[in-house]
Specification:
11 strands, elongated, about 400 residues, 17 helices, alpha/beta, six-stranded parallel beta sheet, three-stranded antiparallel beta sheet
Length: about 400
């Protein structure tokens, strides 16, 4: 059987990137076979390298978002550094940057400038709030954008709004940048021209806020924060079990409520009780509904509760910790784990979510050390050893 190559084999990406949004986008490209050259400052590199030391001494954010890349430590404020970068861009297919607003333009590295110079290049600007408008130059970190986009207002309990536990604004922008690159490459295959791609964190997260946004704009009322409960469906929440675990269940219609009452709660009379028989009634009587469900599940251990719910055809889930996710039996059964090399040794990592049956395995290359590939990349541009030594002496490279 012929194994199809990875779809981005032969594509070269140059990225002047930091933190999460752009690096996570280019990691998706690397996983699909693209060569990704990550340009970092010589004096410490991507600042995400120093967020923590949780991954065997390396930063967990950096390990997650930067496998499979080549690290070039290059000072872009020095004209010689920019000359090196343009040497790479001359043969590149994609350029991605998420520098502070205006910084790329000052270096001549904004998408408009680069696309004029390299017509086949797909050039991506990832920003916090976009290139125009009163927020264009505002600092944009993930939690700040979560707040500006209203995500925090709909997350948490009635008493306390909370941010998402993952960098939702960064991830949203990354995935739109990733899909934008793929779309632009498809267009280039037809027209022969690259072009600009612009993605802002606020735009991306505002799109993800579509349900509460339409609910508010057209319904005239903002959604209430309900913790783990669903705002308009009951019962739909996590309930404690006898062994101290929690099981989440979701009743989507009144037929499911009947099965829950009869087969799990063992209170068949609730199927006809007007306080519980319809979702409208159960939502209006949410506290009583939750008390009935919690009372029944609280007498069962989690495994037995899940068994009964599944036997009754009720959607349910365990309220897992992150450690339980790492040991999840479904991920193990589907062989979703691999090892990725790093400066700290092998690290466990998940396969990318995009599965291409019949194709080559995803490229899950090593997490690079700062400047690990600098000399090889410069020699690939035809630079002599004496030139490289001079640039290193002057701090232009590391």
């Amino acid at each position: 059987m012929t194994i199809e190559p990875l779809p981005l084999d032969g594509i070269t990406v140059v990225a002047v990137e930091q933190a999460v949004s752009a690096p996570f986008a280019t990691r998706q490209l690397a996983d699909l076979g693209a060569r990704v050259i990550k340009v970092e400052r010589p004096d410490g590199g991507d600042f995400a390298r120093h967020y923590d030391t949780a991954a065997h001494g390396l930063a967990s954010h950096f390990v997650w978002a930067n496998r499979g890349k080549e690290s070039l430590a290059l000072d872009l404020k020095d004209p010689r550094g920019r000359e090196v970068l343009h040497g790479l861009l001359a043969d590149a297919d994609v350029f991605v940057q998420n520098l502070a607003q205006g910084a790329a333009a000052r270096l001549g590295l904004d998408a408009a400038t680069l696309c004029a110079r390299y017509p086949r290049l797909v050039a991506v600007d990832v920003s916090g709030y976009g290139a125009q408008g009163p927020y264009a130059h505002k600092r944009a970190y993930d939690m700040l954008v979560q707040c500006e986009a209203g995500l925090v207002s709909v997350t948490g309990t009635p008493e306390q709004p909370v941010k998402a536990g993952v960098p939702a604004a960064d991830i949203a922008a990354a995935m739109y940048a990733f899909s934008g690159v793929l779309a632009a490459l498809l267009r280039r295959g037809v027209t022969g021209r690259g072009g600009r791609v612009e993605v802002s964190m606020l735009d991306a997260l505002a799109e993800w806020m579509g349900h509460p946004l339409h609910h508010t704009m057209h319904g005239g009322r903002e959604p209430v924060r309900t913790g783990l409960a669903h705002a308009v469906i009951a019962p739909y929440d996590a309930y404690p079990t006898a062994d101290g675990d929690r099981v989440l269940l979701s009743v989507q219609n009144d037929r499911e409520w009947r099965r829950l009452a009869e087969q799990v709660l063992e209170q068949p009379e609730l199927a006809e009780d007007p306080e519980y028989a319809t979702n409208t009634a159960r939502t209006a009587n949410r506290e009583k509904t939750d008390a009935v469900v919690a009372g029944a599940l609280g007498t069962l251990e989690a495994e037995e509760a899940v068994r009964r719910l599944e036997a009754a055809g009720i959607a349910c889930a365990r309220l897992n910790s992150v450690a339980q996710l790492a040991a999840h039996p479904q991920l193990a059964a589907r062989d979703r784990w691999r090892q990725v090399e790093s400066p700290a040794g092998p690290l466990r990592a998940l396969l990318p979510p995009i599965v291409l049956p019949g194709g080559a395995a995803p490229h899950m290359g090593a997490v690079p050390a700062l400047g690990e590939h600098t000399e090889a990349l410069l020699r690939g541009l035809g630079m002599a050893g004496t030139q490289i030594s001079e640039l290193r002496r002057d701090g232009v490279i590391a």
